[in-house]
Design brief:
The structure is a single chain. By secondary structure, this protein is of the alpha+beta class. 35% of the residues lie in helices and 26% in strands. α1 runs parallel beside α3. The longest helix has 26 residues. The protein is globular and about 80 Å long. The relative contact order is 0.10. One of its GO terms (molecular function) is serine-type peptidase activity. It holds the Pfam family PDZ_6.
Length: 383
């Protein structure tokens, strides 16, 4: 046991030496004024090794040192990702994962099915909106948060997951075993607005690698149904993958810049639109929950005059993160650039003001922002 512990601490010393070397390389010319800080790092490790009351795994200290380095940046968008979090982020970017295909939420303190997605194990098993998931693999979901529940239902493709379902009007709980499959959650949904037989309504919930292709398909379907104007909704869309935002924006711009990416190190880059574009009246719905990739879209449409923004000022996230893989399945999400709108506006911590400002009260029955958007599209069609 003693030899094993010494070996672990020996590896920790080697790793921390590498960390110190990396920090030295990072601070470069400021080494002389910061050497005491580096000495403190080694001193703290020595004190923990020799004086701390409890046994500590050296790997835990290494991970803590890495986390602390990233946290010292004081950047809410840069973070160290453990293996589980990194895997979940990759799934989110890809827009697919191994799961059963249901959207869940907390209702009356119960884990409740919001909706099952079509052609998924959940839908094929007859799970319905409103069903309460009382247990996952015999683990009660009472007081369980949605993130934990979703994590339990996701897993390797082909593996089983047991659900206990409580359904209103059914006395006994329903026990079902589902086989996980690759689930691609749709990020774009659209339909023709009722009583407006030539105005389409499309919601983009997030930007994943699939969003651009999904949008192209939905727009084509709506054009086949006679769409002459469009309301595009990115309210409460927190963003996502940069390439997806570029492809989505390109559908509405004929030519010219979509976004400028401004790096501190390296060559700046401008993404340009390629004709053709959607040539019809467009209104984009935005609010304070529209962020990041959604703001790239909003900035491109506003600066190009391709449509009218309706709603409230956007969130104001004008920086870009790059995700780097690390050892042991971990990752680093690091802010590496900022983005500027086509007219080179820096919107970080400022947001984008709508052309028509309309405040939607939370919980209101009538969507006055959507109503105003439809009215504007109708006026443009009739011109």
């Amino acid at each position: 046991m003693r030899r094993s512990s010494l070996a672990l601490w020996g590896r920790l010393t080697v790793v921390l030496a590498a960390v110190v070397f990396a920090i030295v390389m990072l601070i470069g010319g400021t080494l002389a004024s910061n050497y005491k800080g580096l000495g403190n790092l080694i001193k703290v490790v020595t004190l923990v090794k020799g004086q701390y009351l409890f046994e500590v795994a050296p790997e835990l200290l290494v991970e803590g040192a890495v986390k602390g380095l990233v946290e010292a940046l004081d950047d809410p968008y840069s973070s160290y990702l453990d293996s589980k979090t990194y895997s979940q982020l990759q799934d989110q970017i890809r827009g697919s994962f191994g799961g059963v295909g249901i959207l869940v939420g907390i209702k009356d303190e119960n884990l409740t099915v919001i909706k099952p997605f079509p052609n998924t194990p959940a839908a094929e098993a007859g799970i319905m909106a409103g069903d309460v998931i009382a247990a996952i693999n015999n683990q009660t979901t009472r007081d369980m948060d949605t993130e934990t529940a979703v994590g339990l239902m996701r897993g390797p493709i082909g593996s089983p997951v047991d659900l206990t379902i409580v359904r209103e009007g059914v006395l006994e709980p329903l026990e079902t075993t589902l086989e996980r499959r690759e689930i691609s959650v749709p990020t774009v949904e659209g339909h023709m607005i009722p009583e407006e037989n030539d105005i389409g309504y499309v919601v983009i919930s997030q930007f994943t690698e699939n969003t651009g292709d999904e949008l192209v398909k939905v727009l084509e379907e709506l054009r086949q149904e006679g769409m002459k104007g469009l309301v595009l909704d990115v309210r409460d869309n927190l963003g996502g993958e940069l390439g997806s935002a570029i492809k989505v924006s390109d559908q509405f711009l004929g030519e010219g810049p979509i976004v400028h990416i401004d790096y501190r190190i390296g060559r700046d880059h401008t993404f340009n639109a390629d004709p053709p574009k959607l040539d019809m009246p467009l209104v984009l719905l935005v609010n304070g929950g529209s962020a990041s990739a959604a703001e790239i879209l909003a900035g491109a449409i506003k600066d190009a005059g391709a449509g009218t923004l309706v709603g409230t000022k956007t969130f104001g996230k004008g920086v870009v993160q790059t995700v780097f893989p690390l050892d042991n399945g971990a990752g680093l999400k690091l802010t590496t650039a900022r983005y500027l709108t086509p007219h080179r506006h820096d919107i970080h911590k400022k947001g984008i003001a709508p052309d028509v400002e309309i405040d939607q009260k939370p919980g209101a029955e009538d969507d006055i922002q959507l109503a105003a958007a439809v009215k504007l599209v109708r006026e443009k069609i009739q011109k």
